[in-house]
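User: Batch of two.

Assistant: Item 1 of 2:
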Amino acid sequence: MKLFKYKGDIYIPKSAYKSSKEARILRILLVFIVIFTSVFLVILSRHYSSAAEFFGKGEITVTENVEQEEILPEIEGKTNFLIFQTDEDKTSINFIFMIQADKSSKAYKVCSLSPNMKIDGKSLYDIYSVGGGASLQTKLTEYLGIQLDYYAEFDTTTFNSFATKLGTFIYPVSSDIKYTGGKGDNKYTIHLNEGEQKIDSQTLSNLIRYYSEEKKNYSAENELILYSLTRLFNADNFNDCDSLFRLFIKSASTNITVRNFENGKDALMVFCKANMSITLYSAEVTYEDNVLSQSSVKEIKGYFGK
């Protein structure tokens, strides 16, 4: 660009002039941005306590890396089961009890019966020896005035085999137990110290039998069964429930079918995955010459009626 027309004119290259002009413009813009930002922050500080409040009006949420609680299916109704164990030769009943899975109230209800119990002058074993588990199921249903939906019969070996697959659990033993009982090939031994003890399948079998046959302490028997239900029916076993059911069918004489199992999977999921929050009820019975007292019959009806 020429500044003077005559001799000695001074020239400034166009490119340098253009760069100088752009630099001035950028400096002006920078000053404007700084002033605008300062004013904006002053206004922001007067109306909002934080940037989060300005951008989200207090509705910004923080996502934490936590595992969401699984939504379990809705279930309802009640199902009653009869469970009992015999010796290897099926010449006696070691223990027998009833369980109700109350799906509506998410509860277990348990009632242990005496193996020496009599109905119309016949012992439970006499009834069993005629028609097996089905005859026991039918007779107890009629006598107690409740519906026993399913039964499962084990001998000592098959009970231990199935319970071994379920695993072990820790149980608070109330006092030292050192006992040998039974007769002939049906003998059993328990050796437990007071305090928390690891209960495996054989110990569970023997301890139920001990409370039932020797101590006739049906309250303690109920407590042990309820404790084992909440510990052994758990999320891990539910994940393996198909193979466990196949073992159950192989181990037990039962009227539970594959269809029954499939239809009951939702309930099984709830009882396994919510196991520690299931409500527990115990129906303790009394006998008069091996016959259930009338008050006990009424109590069982109250617990196991549908």
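Item 2 of 2:
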Amino acid sequence: MNSQNSRYTVRLAGPQDNAGIREIFESGSFSGGIDLQYLRGDAPFDSLKADGDDVRILTADDNETGRLAAVGGAVLRTEYLNGIPARCAYLTGLKIHPDYQGKFYRIAESYQFLGQQLQDCACCYTTVLDDNERVIRMFEKHHRNMPEYRYLGHYTTYCFHGGKKLLPLRTDRTADFEPLLHMYYSQFALTPCRPDYPGFGKQRFFSYSRKGELIACCYVGDQSRTKQYKLCSYGSIYKTLAKLPVQLLGYPKLPEEGSIIHHGVVSYLYVRDNDPVICRRFLRSVAAAAGFSVLIWGGFETHPLCKALNKMRTIHYGSRLYEVLWDGAAPAITGKIGMEAALL
């Protein structure tokens, strides 16, 4: 996709672009009270591919220097949509290298090209951090030649840690999970149909049963081989909190600036009857047993277990969820939503 006299070539990326994509990931961060870099290791293309069945990643080549100016695209995976497995596309967002900020003008054209690559998908969606006001304004202004971004609601990512082990846990009852996948998780749109995507990381299954009946369960994944969160710096009130022993109050210990956060991700969380007390006790027990400095779980605003997490002592951040519609396509995402933070 290259027009005559154009400085940039927008094309589909491949594993050969790992170095250039890594440079772009390492050049940016999530600004706000906590400034984070979201990294995908030495092979970011492979890391993105691990999150689904396939990827359609675009890069913009600077034809004058040979450098990559921007990267973006979509991870394709099989997720539940109206209770039925469907091919869905999660848009990872366009990342532009700081050297090309304000100089790369082919954004609309790039999105049109990406839309052409996703015509075989039942739906497309993306998330944007609440603090990213510039991108939110761009999405919601409905620019010409850009897809429509239909706002679906708010998604919260919770970070917490353990303490005492409050409930007896088992790690050998994975047979309990299979019936739940079809009977429970399938009710939530955008829940992955496969719990074995490599992007979930090296997983352990935790469950709590009472009188032989399953009460709560989840997976916890170690994603350190494919995803890392680097704590760059603190701002506002977090600069003060980072110097205090907040873990004594039940909050996660704030990592040192410049460190990689030792995190695990909770996926496929289930609590019978959505009991908030059991949910909190179960997650604290899992966090104590899993051994990570921080556990992460995310839930859409209507997810019944968000009420329990809202009463836990967590550090959390919010995102806006959008369905992305090209060429006047009809909305496809309805009802309850169960996106897994591990694959965002």
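The mean pLDDT is 91.
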